[in-house]
Design brief:
The protein is α/β, with parallel strands linked by helices. It folds into two domains: about 140 residues, HAD superfamily/HAD-like (Rossmann fold, 3-Layer(aba) Sandwich); about 70 residues. The protein is about 45% helix and about 10% strand. It is built from ten helices and six strands. Strand 2, helix 6 and strand 3 form a beta-alpha-beta unit.
């Protein structure tokens, strides 16, 4: 894809730009109920239930966390404490960026408009965006779209708001399952996977893999 064809670089936020710490919080909050050797499996199940929750009718992210955690605890036959999900939700706006993000992102913003499409609630996202220290052309949430990624409706909302088509953007994410498979299905021509170790790569679905945001401008030819 030639740089002149890119009108916007669009990003996932949590995990891609912001250091998403749900797994760490899960390990801390449930340490008294899950044995250490089993914690990785519990964290994986919790992630799977969160993804399942966002595929249904839209609900607030607070409810996504709470319901997914309750389902995971039920699967494991352990006590579910509702305040755990709320503690996670309240913590999300306090999380800052990955170390590689702020400086190269600010440089990139001087060359092309940057956009965020996030599986976030409206009352969370701007707290995280402010910590990125880069100017964004637009920030869109699942709450505004009425749909979470990986649903294509979330991307459709972004395209409608930007007045563009999938062919006009390059999409960047640390998640194949939430973002880049959907970007592939929508025929977004430039798909960049930043490997932060959350998920294995799937080369069929992405056209480029990077290990830091500092590599992004070079990959895009900007």
């Amino acid at each position: 894809m030639s740089p002149s064809a890119i009108k916007f670089v669009t990003f996932d936020c949590y995990g891609t730009l912001t250091h998403f710490q749900i797994a760490d919080m899960t390990r801390t909050l449930l340490a008294d109920r899950i044995n250490s050797p089993e914690m990785d499996a519990f964290v994986t199940d919790f992630a799977n239930f969160r993804r399942d929750e966002v595929l249904g009718p839209w609900k607030l992210y607070r409810d996504v966390l709470e319901t997914a955690l309750a389902r995971t605890c039920s699967l494991w036959g352990i006590e579910h404490r509702p305040h755990d999900g709320d503690a996670m939700y309240q913590a999300v706006p306090t999380w800052g960026p990955h170390p590689d993000v702020a400086e190269p992102l600010a440089r990139l913003a001087g060359k092309i408009p940057l956009v965020i499409l996030s599986n976030a609630s409206n009352d969370q996202i701007m707290h995280n965006v402010e910590k990125l220290n880069a100017p964004f052309h637009a920030v869109y949430t699942a709450e505004q779209a009425g749909a979470y990624k990986p649903r294509l409706a979330a991307f459709d909302y972004m395209f409608d708001q930007l007045g563009c088509t999938p062919a006009d953007v390059a999409h960047v994410s640390a998640s194949m399952r939430y973002d880049l498979i959907s970007a592939h299905d929508l025929r977004i021509p430039s798909r960049i996977y930043i490997n932060r170790g959350y998920e294995p790569s799937a080369p069929y679905y992405s056209t480029a893999e990077i290990s830091s945001i500092g590599e992004l401008a070079g990959v895009l030819g900007l």
